[in-house]
Amino acid sequence: MSVLVSNLQDEVTVDDDLAEFLSGVAEAVLKSEGYGEDAEVSLVLVDDTYIRSLNSEYRGIDSPTDVLSFAMLEGEALPGQEEELILGDVVVSVQTARRQADEYGHSFRRETAYLTAHGVLHLLGYDHQEEEGREMMRLKEEEILASLNISR
Questions:
Q1: N or C: where does the chain have the smaller number of CB atoms within 10 Å of the terminal CB?
Q2: HSE on the CB side for 2, CA within 13 Å?
Q3: Average confidence (pLDDT) over 108-129
Q4: Which contiguous run of DSSP H or E holds residue 7?
């Protein structure tokens, strides 16, 4: 199992400990859903300006958001992909995560862990457009965070 973490911003300090922590969260989600060593996810940490441009381009919403997921499981595998299962990219705005952590009264680590779990679940097909899906996704997020002893 491979989680590639890239920090493309300099607004919020991201050290190796945080990167490893978030990688562990992503791996926990994948394991909980039955994915093995061949699964690969990219986690990209960005600022509000960067995620706003992605949100505008891909969703038509010209404002920052907390997390975006870009799944790669749609369509047929590309030649050479048979050996690895590239699930996609999760993009997290650490600026928004910091604001939301303050707003919700919990730590920045907890908020980034939640957003990472949320984003990876989206890669795996979870959605929250309908109430039933929202409840299932929320339950899965909380189960994963609890299994890692990440509390509010």
A1: C
A2: 13
A3: 95
A4: strand 2-7
Residue boundaries of the structural domains of the chain: 2-147
pLDDT tens digit string along 48-94?
999 999 999 999 999 999 999 999 975 455 555 556 799 999 999 99
Domain 2-147 CATH superfamily: Metalloproteases ("zincins"), catalytic domain (3.40.390.30)
Nearest to 94 by CA among 45, 26, 49: 45
**70 membership: H or E segment, kind and range:** strand 67-71
106 annotated among ligand-binding-site residues: no
For 12, phi then psi, to 5°, come to -130, 135
118 is in an annotated binding site: yes
Separation between Cα atoms, residue 56 and residue 103, nearest integer Å: 24
